[in-house]
Recover the amino acids of this structure.
């Protein structure tokens, strides 16, 4: 008998009543069905119309003057946040912003980002979230490609804006001086906090892909999914709660940080934001604000764990209930080290800008199978296909394809991802094990063939990162006359640690097959990453040319 095809099923065998009862139980546990919350969110929806600002208005009705955002400027309550968003929306409306207008936002994690996003949505305008790591030419290219007419940005990016954003109207979202450019604070002072007319439909939100191997693409979404299974599946696998305190460290301009901020906003959570990630400040904020939910990318976990143990244990982090991690691969060893230090509170969210949630691993699964991406949530189907588009059996590596109601609508410049049987490619290779757990082995364009053997750089990266002297590592394939391709490793060492190239190669040879040993090991002060923590392999390839 042939092996059964590998598939992560999203629909357990429940009848309609069983599925309804299951959904009721999950959403009740989350707090979404409490009468008080339901009343507040309905009032918010009636006031906002088709807008993602429902959470801002609902939070006002649900929690009033309680803290909505705590950032580097202090605390702002839900009612004050609503009033500021109304005033900013009125000011932007007077400046010509409305349905069909594209507002680009270039801001770090702070209240100005939230206000710009919510005010834009209240007007039915489109929002374009820009990478804070852009250079001037990149900014110019993206603004022109996406047709943005307004740019809201932090003062620290003024030089970049002068190079690449001079042709659109400007508003400052954060400033430490008194520049001549009008700011969101100016709009608050100059406009009454009156709700603008409700838009005819919800504006689009465009998130840029990571751009680790090339130019970032715009991924379009015009609405939030209303598919019940998808919503239930997310909160079943990641048990978030209404009314908690969450610290969003992941950049809010990118999908992972943005979805956490949006959920926190919708759930009337107190959201803690810091403009820059500093490991010790994160621990201090967790203790001071009794943070229950932390949203990070894997490199942030690594940086926190790299602190001196005496520093780490100086802070009380016992309030942490859920640590959501995404944005790049989570090495199994890093997951175990985190949970050994901070408790079994870690959830690995695997997905992409294009397909949203693909799989989620809970702490029990990460303990049992370190390195797993987990299981597909309800409402999501994952299948593994070979290069000919045929399903492969469990344990066999192939291309990962995903189906759910949260897929993007296509790239703004045209085109989309490959599809098979209605499922969309996520661009990764991986396999399911015999227990139905998904394992991701790397990008489908990262795999190299060296001497006739398939090699996944991520396996070597994870091993090198486990070495006690290594802070982080990245591995790429480069051309080789004899073997076709060979591995080249880039390693950053921990402070005061030492490791030779020969020792690094021996370490890999002692643990992996010979064809997986890098032919070169280059030592760097740090591995180049984008603001979401993903390794910029195109930069490493440029260094190798």
């Amino acid at each position: 008998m042939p092996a059964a095809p590998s598939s992560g099923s999203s629909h357990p065998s429940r009848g309609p009543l069983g599925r309804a009862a299951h959904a009721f139980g999950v959403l009740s546990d989350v707090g979404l069905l409490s009468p008080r919350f339901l009343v507040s969110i309905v009032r918010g929806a009636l006031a906002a119309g088709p807008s993602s600002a429902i959470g801002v208005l609902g939070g006002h009705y649900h929690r009033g003057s309680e803290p909505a955002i705590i950032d580097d400027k202090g605390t702002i309550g839900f009612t004050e946040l609503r009033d500021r968003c109304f005033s900013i929306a009125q000011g932007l409306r007077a400046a010509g912003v409305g349905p069909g207008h594209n507002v680009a936002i270039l801001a770090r994690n702070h209240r100005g980002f939230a206000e710009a996003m919510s005010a834009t949505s209240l007007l039915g305008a489109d929002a374009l979230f820009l990478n804070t790591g852009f250079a001037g030419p990149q900014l110019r290219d993206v603004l022109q490609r996406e047709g943005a007419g307004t740019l809201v940005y932090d003062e620290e990016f003024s030089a970049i804006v002068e190079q690449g954003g001079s042709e659109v109207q400007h508003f400052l979202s954060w400033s430490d001086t008194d520049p001549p450019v009008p700011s969101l604070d100016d709009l608050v002072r100059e406009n009454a906090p009156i709700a603008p007319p409700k838009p005819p439909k919800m504006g689009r939100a465009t998130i840029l892909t990571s751009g680790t191997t090339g130019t970032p693409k715009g991924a379009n979404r015009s609405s939030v999914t209303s598919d019940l299974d998808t919503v239930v599946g997310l909160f079943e696998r990641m048990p978030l709660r209404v009314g908690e305190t969450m610290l969003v460290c992941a950049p809010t301009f990118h999908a992972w940080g943005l979805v956490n901020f949006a959920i926190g906003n919708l759930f009337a959570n107190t959201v803690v934001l810091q403009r820059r990630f500093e490991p010790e400040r994160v621990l201090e904020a967790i203790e001071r604000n009794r943070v229950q939910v932390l949203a990070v990318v894997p490199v942030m976990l690594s940086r926190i764990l790299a602190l001196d143990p005496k520093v780490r244990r100086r802070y009380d982090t016992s309030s942490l209930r859920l640590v959501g991690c995404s944005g790049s691969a989570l090495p199994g060893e890093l997951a175990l080290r985190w949970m050994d230090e901070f408790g079994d509170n870690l959830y690995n969210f695997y997905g992409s800008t294009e397909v949203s949630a693909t799989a989620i691993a809970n702490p029990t699964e990460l303990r049992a199978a370190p390195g797993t991406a987990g299981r597909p949530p309800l409402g999501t189907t994952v299948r593994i296909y070979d290069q000919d588009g045929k399903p492969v059996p469990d344990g066999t590596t192939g291309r990962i394809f995903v189906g759910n109601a949260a897929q993007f609508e296509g790239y703004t410049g045209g085109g989309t991802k490959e599809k098979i049987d209605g499922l969309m490619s996520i661009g990764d290779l991986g396999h399911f094990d015999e227990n139905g757990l998904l394992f991701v082995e790397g990008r489908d364009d990262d795999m190299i063939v060296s001497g006739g053997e398939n090699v996944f750089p991520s396996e070597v990266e994870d091993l090198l990162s486990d070495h006690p002297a290594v802070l982080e590592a990245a591995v790429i394939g480069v051309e080789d006359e004899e073997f076709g391709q060979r591995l080249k490793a880039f390693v950053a060492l921990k402070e005061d640690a030492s490791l030779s190239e020969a020792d690094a190669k021996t370490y890999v040879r002692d643990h992996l097959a010979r064809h997986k040993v890098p032919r070169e090991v280059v030592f760097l002060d740090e591995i180049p990453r984008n603001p979401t923590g993903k390794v910029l392999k195109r930069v490493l390839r440029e260094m190798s040319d």
In short: Confidence is low (pLDDT under 50) at residues 1-5. The chain is about 35% helix and 25% strand. The longest helix spans residues 78-94. The CA atoms of residues 42 and 342 lie 38 Å apart.
